Amino acid sequence: MKLETRDLTRVHEGRAIVDHVNLAVATGEVVMIVGPSGAGKSSLLRLLNRLDEPTAGTAFLDGVDYRRIPPRELRRRVGMIMQTAHLFPGSVADNVRFGPRQRGRDLSEVEIERLLSRVGLSGFGDRMVDRLSGGEAQRVAIARALANDPEVLLLDEPTSALDDSAKAAVEDLLSEIIREESLTCVWVTHDTAQAKRMADRVLVMQNGRLQMTS
Amino acid sequence: MLNQFFQDPIQLATAQAAVAIALALGMMFIAAWAGIHLEKEILIALLRGLVQVVAVGAVLLFIFQGPELLGFVILAGMMALAAKTAEKRAEGLPDAFRVALFGIALGGGSVILLMTWAGVIDPKLTSLIPIGSMIIANSMNAASLALDRFQGEIRSHVGHIETALALGADPKTAVQPYARAAVRASLIPRIDSLRTLGIVWIPGVMTGMLLAGNQPVHAALYQFVIMAMILAVSGLASLISALLMAGAIFTPAEQLKINIRV
Ligand SMILES: Nc1ncnc2c1ncn2[C@@H]1O[C@H](COP(=O)(O)OP(=O)(O)O)[C@@H](O)[C@H]1O
Ligand SMILES: [Mg+2]
Question: Considering CB atoms only, which of A51, A73, A148 is closest to B165?
Fold first, then answer.
């Protein structure tokens, strides 16, 4: 298993917002998680990126307990795309460079351009991020995450803040990239149709618990 | 006029205080006549201010007869109180008392020691205590301002900070722009007051020295020395506070302790 959780739990203010979740994702598998708002989907992804600490249980990456992986290394290997792009002020290229630079590696112009063309933003490197549309910003966020060369990608409703045309385009783009890279994915959405389109497997989350379905 | 009736300086000062109170009461009656009723607040403020400042004077009278070491003990106590005050401003940030105390003690303490050693501050208690307390008060203001602003920046940029972490950034890098903004914001008022020194206002130390009969250029230079010292100590205190707080807001697993969802 690429990614596995064992009774992963987070209690917040006396309530289990993630409740004994046991999830196993095979290498290259795309697991879609659907469920009503407030079900704990985002909270689960935050635990999988270790942005929050579980109050019980744990997770494993390639069989290694999260607690034995340095957080920065873990987050490099388990990338995350959020609902909003949260681009850093500056140029598109600055954003794409960010991840590798944290480890002292400077991406070349060619590498940046290759990442940008992967997300359909060829030639956007010098563009300032405050001049991008919502869909473009989210594409930059995707390129920025890919620059880290992640093994697992966590996606928290990556298209839900976009307008309809951008939604479809970003979904297609992600689908293509995931297939090409055989990325292991945990993708949260509230759109059941999207879940069916993208999934190897759809899981339903409710009240912090994960229920197995087809 | 008063000095024709009172020769003893304490009697003279008491009479001057009475005249000042009468003036404030006069203002109060005029305000009341204009429909602005602040009688209670003004009376309490006058009374409190008078009692407090006379008490401080009495305490200083006693302290000034003590050994010089006492001065440092008192300044240390002031630092603790200042840190307590700054902590309140930083409510919602973890470890704020420790952070503010380090900022004030390291920033203020080093400036006081250095300036005393260099001979800018007279090690006599009569100058060490008032100037030291002024330095501490300014460290406190700078640390409070920096922490308050830092907290605001963090809260409005949680998404960016966590995105940086999620990309494998170390926590210091993730909050660096916000720590810098905080330090910058805390220094702007000090830079402004140094820039307008003498033009917009003649500040306290110079006023005091002029009243005490010092030569104006001498008084002016010493005022400048004080202002430059305040600028330095403010920068040190806010830098140290912001730097320490940038560490304190993360867990050992490099997670933001301020838990708000965006
Ligand atoms: N800062 C927070 N820390 C912990 N739990 C929170 C926080 N904010 C909201 N919650 C609660 O956690 C629960 C799960 O929220 P979330 O994971 O965002 O659900 P979903 O993504 O499925 O809509 C909700 O009941 C929500 O109220
Ligand atoms: Mg959510």
Answer: A51
Q: Work out the pLDDT band at B230, boundaries 50, 70, 90.
A: very high
Instruction: Quote the pLDDT of residue A214.
Output: 45
Asked if the Cβ–Cβ distance from A148 to B167 is below 8 Å, we say yes
CB contacts under 8 A, B 196-255 vs A, are: 251, 253-255
Sign of CA dihedral A85, A88, A90, A94: negative
CA of B150 to the centre of ligand 2 (A): 27
Please give the pLDDT value at position B205: 84
CA distance B241 to B102: 7
Site from A47, A84, A102, A149 to mutate, B interface, most B CB atoms within 10 angstroms? A102
Amino acid letter for position B256: L
Task: State mean pLDDT over A16-39.
Answer: 96
What is the pLDDT at residue A44? 98
Residue A110 has pLDDT above 80, yes or no: yes
Q: For chain B, how many helices (H) and strands (E)?
A: 10, 0
**ipTM over cut 0.85:** yes
Q: Of A168, A172, A146, A37, which Cα lies nearest the Cα of A81?
A: A146
Q: Which of B160, B167, B251 sits opposite A75 (nearest CB)?
A: B167
Q: What percentage of chain A's residues is helix, strand, coil (to nearest 5)?
A: 35, 25, 35
* A164-181 vs A134-146: helix crossing angle, rounded to 10: 10
**β-strands A152-156, A184-188: how paired?**
parallel
Which residue carries 């954003």 as its tokens?
A95
Distance from CA of B95 to the nearest CA of A (A): 20
